[in-house]
Specification:
Two copies of one chain form a homodimer.
Chain A (H helix, E strand, L loop, with lengths): L45 H6 L4 E5 L2 E6 L3 H10 L2 E4 L5 E5 L3 H7 L13 E3 L2 E2 L5 E3 L2 E6 L2 E5 L5 H12 L4 E3 L3 E7 L3 H9 L11 E6 L2 E6 L8 E7 L3 H11 L6 E3 L3 H6 L34 H10 L3 E8 L11 E5 L2 E12 L4 E9 L8 E6 L2 E7 L6
Parallel strand pairs in A: 3-15
Antiparallel strand pairs in A: 1-2, 3-11, 4-9, 4-10, 5-8, 6-7, 8-9, 11-14, 12-13, 13-14, 16-19, 16-21, 17-18, 17-20, 18-19, 20-21
């Protein structure tokens, strides 16, 4: 029986010579094509995204997530200077409603959520009985017995509903018809105030409030998957395109345009991607999420495993890694990291960052080598590159 | 609180005039692009797939699934004449092992699995407490206390492990390092016999056996997601490419080549796609899976809901639909189906089938209109087309 906390299988470099398909992110024409189907769900904003000239997607929670409009590089520069509207409908909500809602929410996370107030957001690791990460969602309390869990890409609803069903909890667990729209960038405050009034600026980080625009009401949170600041608007399916067009119309002089989570910016900022940088093979401590774990005081699934991990201390950790040499190809697989020929870790996300003039990367590095300044070798599918483990992310 | 068994939201036609992106499946150049990342997992056969000139993918269980090599039309004709090797690694396995394995497996399906024998495969609907479909996997019993659940595209592991964890069952639930390779087509028997010997031909439909090739042992089942016959080989990650190359090498005179589940052939054959043709909004009775439901005798999750649905009878059903008129665009969203302007159903999968000289489709039609021969109108994103509800699928 496999140990689910064992090191994921990373084998030493198998150079894939003669394989044509290792495009870099600069060369969109080499990207593979996607076969659309109903199973890869469109969103209420898809028409706006298409009209804005989307160039590529990823699939996230069985849904289309736009990744590129002009180019990853140009999208990044624009995000850091202006304001973007992102179709992040794929951040699906799990609604948990009913008398046992609070109990169920606390069961699924080692973070102490007992003091969450209405309108508060909390980033919560969700782990299995072995302490392995199942998702890293944002929890929002809408009312005393009503929560949304805004999920990363795994069907966490099945976990939450499976537990509720098995235990016969008095709670309803379902995916509501809610589609988040993110407004991100340094001019996000200005654009949002034009639609929702100055009161939107009173929303503190990771707090949500119900606001009205053109007689529709929206939950608005100060949050988002970038380091540039901004908001996430939780939109009912029906009203999607009207709000999209209002934002685009009101922000013309702010150079507003469509965007999406940006690979350069998220790596520079150290924003982890579930499924990329962490999976069920990882515990929250090695993901740097120890401040969101209180297994001493919280009675949750995975408690015993987390107590043991906490006691021993993590044996490897997420680290920023600066990869020197040529621009890296697309990081579509784990890249082994070695020191003196011995495997000491893996890179899981990487791209060339023009602002840093280096390939920025996120990896998981063994304890003996995770100190800032350590020299390592990263084995990409097209060749090896010298690299340095950093202490801090770039932005 | 929404009724999860209520009709999914299908609104009447909103013609999307001026939107450039309604490509047909014949025109691959118009397909959107996919941003690769580690989260969209490669497989042990990806190098072979790339070398074979894959033209498009879908994402299935967070993994790359090739959809097109030459063209959907040419791939279909080849599949019906020769033999193809499919990288269906995305049919992930859930391994359920331990003293409570049998109990857990019966809890998750209304199909009576008490008489399953070692090496037997069973197609099992998995439903939630409301009777909504969560997945439609194939169950294989490997040993008395050891099963694989070979899943469609949803993280069913979270459901199964959530239930096991909540109840404290004595069972281990995990995703093993197993990657199925399908060998499909009329010459599949011949090709498989060349590798595994004539004993492979003794495997009956939906039975599995452990066979050896070049000193590696594989679970081989007579199964697959086509109507052309063939096998699925359950491959340990490590040995993937060697087996792929052996199959390609041994079948040259049989015109073996890479392929994948074919959209034309699966619709002609009435093979449902979870997430396309059925979701948690559907119960197994309306999906035509009543023969796999024994809620009277089986004590499973969803039993009460299924008993009620069975008593009332389904109010709508999966039906083959022949869509006349121009070739349909890509069916990337639900198409409303109307009679006299009133909504009576939806189409969820469709494509032009050269052999039938008609657009073949799978839809869900209300009871009053599901009889074979009923005339309906199907509202695609690029226009309306007359259509006929059929009694039987095409092949």
């Amino acid at each position: 029986m496999p140990d689910r906390l064992a090191r994921p299988k990373v084998t030493l470099p198998q150079r894939e010579s003669g394989i044509a398909s290792t495009p870099s992110h600069g060369d969109l024409s080499d990207l593979p094509k996607l076969s659309p189907s109903r199973r890869l769900r469109r969103t209420p904003f898809s028409r706006g995204v298409e009209a804005a000239g989307v160039k590529a997607y990823t699939i996230y929670n069985h849904m289309l997530l736009p990744t590129v409009f002009e180019s990853i590089k140009a999208d990044c520069a624009h995000l850091k200077s202006h304001v973007q509207v992102w179709d992040v409908s794929c951040e699906r909500q799990i609604e948990v409603t009913g008398p046992d809602a609070g109990r169920l929410v606390q069961m699924i996370t080692p973070r102490d959520v007992s003091k969450i107030s209405n309108g508060q957001c909390m980033y919560i690791p969700v782990v299995n009985a072995r302490g392995g990460m199942l998702n890293d969602p944002v929890l929002i309390r809408l009312a005393e017995d009503r929560y949304w869990i805004s999920i990363a890409s795994s069907d966490l609803l099945l976990w939450v509903d499976g537990i509720a069903t098995a235990l016969g909890l008095n709670v309803s667990v379902f995916e509501p018809d809610i589609h988040p729209l993110a407004v991100q960038g340094p001019k996000a405050d200005e654009l949002m105030a034009r639609l929702f009034g100055p009161q939107v600026l009173d929303i503190r980080f990771f707090r949500a409030r119900e606001l009205t625009f053109e007689s529709s009401s929206y939950v608005v949170a100060r949050s988002g998957y970038s380091k540039q600041g901004g908001f996430e608007i939780y939109v009912n399916g029906g009203g999607g395109m009207a709000l999209w067009q209002s934002l685009m119309g009101a922000g013309q002089d702010l150079h507003v345009r469509a965007g999406g989570p940006n690979l350069i910016e998220r790596i520079e900022g150290g924003l982890l991607g579930f499924g990329n940088d962490m999976t069920a093979d990882n515990n929250p401590y090695e993901c740097g999420l120890e401040k969101f774990c209180q297994p001493q005081t919280v009675d949750c699934i995975g408690r015993d495993a987390l107590l043991a991990i906490e006691k021993q201390g993590p044996q490897r950790k997420i680290r920023p890694i600066a990869i020197a040499g040529d621009k890296v190809p697309i990081c579509d697989r784990l890249w082994p990291v070695t020191v003196g020929g011995a495997l000491v870790g893996q890179v899981s996300s990487a791209i060339y960052a023009p602002a840093q003039q280096v390939n920025v990367a996120i990896g998981m590095i063994d304890k003996a080598h995770w100190q800032g300044g350590t020299s390592v070798v990263v084995h990409c599918q097209d060749g090896d590159r010298p690299a340095t483990v950093n202490e801090e992310f770039w932005i």
